[in-house]
Amino acid sequence: MSEDIEIKDQAAREAAAKVAEYEHGWVADIEQEYGPKGLSEDTVRYISAKKDEPEWMLEWRLKAYRHWLTMPMPDWAKLNIPPIDYQNAYYWAAPKKKDGPKSLDEVDPEILRVYEKLGIPLAEQEVLAGVEGARKIAVDAVFDSVSVATTFRKELEAAGVIFRSISEAIREYPELVKKWLGRVVPMADNYFAALNCAVFSDGTFVYVPEGVRCPMELSTYFRINAENTGQFERTLIVADKGAYVSYLEGCTAPQRDENQLHAAVVELVALDDAEIKYSTVQNWYPGDAQGKGGIYNFVTKRALCQGKRSKVSWTQVETGSAITWKYPSCVLNGEDSVGEFYSVAVTNNYQQADTGTKMIHNGKGSRSTIVSKGISAGHSQNTYRGLVRVGANAEGVRNFTQCDSLLLGKTCGAHTVPYIEVRNPTATIEHEATTSKISDDQLFYAMQRGLDTESAVALIVNGFAKEVLQQLPMEFAVEAQKLLGISLEGSVG
Amino acid sequence: MLQITNLHASVADKPILKGLNLTINAGEVHAIMGPNGAGKSTTGYVLGGRPGYEVTEGSATFNGQDLFALDPHERAASGLFLGFQYPVEIPGVSNLQFLREALNSQRKFHDLPPLSGGEFLKLAKEKAGLLKMDMDMLKRPVNVGFSGGEKKRAEMVQMGILDPKLAILDETDSGLDIDALRICGEGINAIMRKPDKAVLLITHYQRLLDYVKPDFVHVLAGGRIVKSGGPELALALEEGGYEGVAA
Amino acid sequence: MITLPTRKAEEWRYADLGALETLWPLPDAESVTVAAGGEFARAIVNKGGVVRLSLTLEAGAKAAVHVLNTADTYARIEIEATLHEGADFHLGGVQLSSGDQTAEIVTTVRHIEPNATSHQMIRSVAGGTSTASVLGKVYVAKGADGTDGSQSVRAMLLDRTAQANARPELEIYADDVKCAHGCAIGELDANGLFYLAARGIEPARAKALMLQAFIAEAFDGAAEKDNLTAAAQAALEALL
């Protein structure tokens, strides 16, 4: 129409004015037992002893710790990281009394209430009492340093699937753990991985034997509850030949003024024809609107697609944490192996996210797909950093990468740093990146149909992220959609 | 239903509407015609509450409520539907998802329970049928990849589903071929030609008015209504042009 | 930079550091300021060594730079462009490497004010055990709304021992921007080669023709298009 006049953008006017309310920001009052404050060989020994670990495990930890001491903190990511005082943190915090509940009845009811509050179906009967036809999800819940409950164990065992806290697995399946632990992410891989090797407290171990399709979704919920505590969980998933498993990971932490450290390591191994689907919804406390507090989320996630036609698919929805530093990656050694990375990262207020993936193509005919959707608001910085590498002997490799950024407001940043390194002429590598914003027209159109500003923003953002969200198992997709909306509350005025 | 009194409005500090008066009662169909730049689309946007369209003077009451005190989504929930001349694309969000969310937001505003997926689908199917639109179209993202005519038909489907009290249709006829024009016209009649509803058509041409017969025709020029009359006025305009009438 | 860089420095990640040492210290970049509303055109043919050009485009200025980068051992072209309001920067580049050569084009385009446009198109061909790299960066400052910046990077590998690297980076601090980059690495289309063969063109010639077509678009709009194309063709023949 003739009055097609540019209307000035009002976005982000109130960006910092509102504190996006963090719904998991409460602290549960649970009696905690702490290890020694600060990091030393004694701390490492304390943790190992607490967990009743075999000698080889302690030696492994100490070796990692000594190596860690020699490593400098990385500075290459586009992050502004305040110095971390490793001596002012606890590396072990556990709900008092029992460190290994044998059944749900033994779990502190207060902890169960915490998980209930988080909406986690910890008690099996709750799940069974759910909607008819609802899929079962086996849950391992890690509370600060220890795994408090693993559900559906019997049913999984009948299928031959081992689903344990990693502490239990070290005791019960030492050979399996020894064989693969540190194989995908060597202890010297990076600063935070080495730290994790030294002080990891708990986590999850999954082994799916040859030809078995895991009968249900497996899930771990991580919760940092104690003050001044780092969480260093360790996850190891091995899918033997022809096996299939879908694994979900969810994270929350209470609202605190000081920063807390989360340095996890996740290792996945897929043998011939095996498939692992790994989904994360990360909602650690992001800090307040002024950037105070929040979790430092420094995570090393890597998959070894060792077998022919093996497949690993990473899907992540990252909305929380003050700082996120993670690159779930695939080493595609197997012929015709497949790596996928689907990511939505939302940053608001003063959050910083530096996330992406590495696809290392060594196997002939290996393929990878990368879809990254970054959404920045407030004063946040959101970076995609990725690497696609094709080795000289990897014939017929294909990669497709799509990186899209959505900016809400004029005080945030969106960055794309893709590295592409190709040594084989038969590779077909395609990379595309775009940057956009929510237009005033879109917003007004949605509002004219009856949506308020926040619903309209949430709807448009969900549309932007759809390609990724549809990769999630249904239960998670719904949660993730809501999270996107909540994380961006107040970001458009 | 809608009473506009001495409405003045500016866009980027440039006055566009300069004393518009208009009263629309339930059961009526009005048409606003006028040359380019007269303020026709501005009228629709101001009533819809588009940011940047600033009311500098005057008032509008909609079913007894002060329209300008409401946010755009509250105006929508109160029953005001704006058919866009250029419907906006929303990638990744299907029409069905969009409309279900919009409808349930509006229902929530009136303390009504949300429609279930099944109920909503039934409603959507019925309204899409009215506009001869394939349900598959509604599964596609909002307006993405739609032709001009498809967008306009989709707007009418939206109107059918949201079931407003007052529809302000901004050049709904542009971009339509003869068949689509007839389908849209019949759709408007089926959805809006009711004793408790009203329509304000904003158009350049007579042709839509052949299908949706207006009770009143107004000529907008220089930001105010310079002439009002019955359907015969539209025909006169078609023959004599705006110049003769607006002079 | 006073000391020799290491591979940890992102801008030198793929450089031939041994060759660089013989060239050290590098000369300062040639600095050119294009006055408001002015126009600037430059064609650079680098046959080895490091060429550095730093441009500042004042409001409404236009610059078109076309480069051909070939190496005896190591060839690097660094171009920096700072764009003020409404400026327009165009870069068309071709690099050809063979043997154990290393060729790289490193660009940093800074949109520091609104409504500037930049378009970069680089085509690389690498054979032998050579390495051809493109490190491009588009930076959009806070408030530089209306920015339109594009990067198109494509590379062809002729041998399985050759390497192509690309890093088309975006660093964006404004929300009303159109920034896109596309990157593709691959080999010559087998169907195309067959089509030419079926018309009676011998394989080596067919390959040359297709590579010529592949690099040609990078010199579109260049004032010295014919010269550049001729130089590129000669280099290409030598490479094949």
Please characterize this protein's 3D structure.
The complex is a heterotrimer of chains A (493), B (247) and C (240). Chain A is an alpha/beta fold and 493 residues long. Helix content of chain A is 22%, strand content 34%. Chain A has helices at residues 41-50, 55-69, 109-117, 124-128, 153-159, 166-172, 174-180, 191-199, 440-448, 453-464, 466-469, 474-487, and strands at 32-34, 93-95, 137-143, 146-150, 162-165, 203-208, 217-223, 234-239, 244-252, 259-262, 265-270, 275-282, 294-305, 311-318, 323-326, 329-332, 338-347, 352-355, 358-361, 367-377, 381-390, 398-408, 413-422, 428-437. Chain A has a ten-stranded mixed sheet. In chain A, strands 13-15-18-21-19-16 form a six-stranded parallel beta barrel. Chain A has a two-stranded antiparallel ribbon with strand order 1-2. In chain A, helix 2 (55-69) packs antiparallel against helix 8 and helix 10 (453-464) packs across helix 12. Chain B is α/β, with parallel strands linked by helices. The radius of gyration of chain B is 18 Å and the shape is globular. With 240 residues, chain C is of the alpha/beta class. Chain C has one domain. The A-B interface holds A 1-3, 5-8, 10, 439-442, 444-453, 455-456, 459-460, 462-467 and B 11-12, 14, 16, 36-37, 39-42, 45, 48-52, 71-73, 75-77, 81-82, 84-85, 87-93, 97-99, 101-103, 105-106, 109, 141, 158, 162, 170-171. Strand 24 (428-437) of chain A pairs antiparallel with strand 12 of chain C.
Major pleated sheet of chain B: 6 strands, mixed
The biggest sheet of chain C, with number of strands, parallel, antiparallel or mixed sense and barrel status, is: 6 strands, parallel
Element-level helix/strand string of chain C? HEEEEEEEEEEEEHHH
Q: What is the end-to-end distance of chain C? A: 37 Å
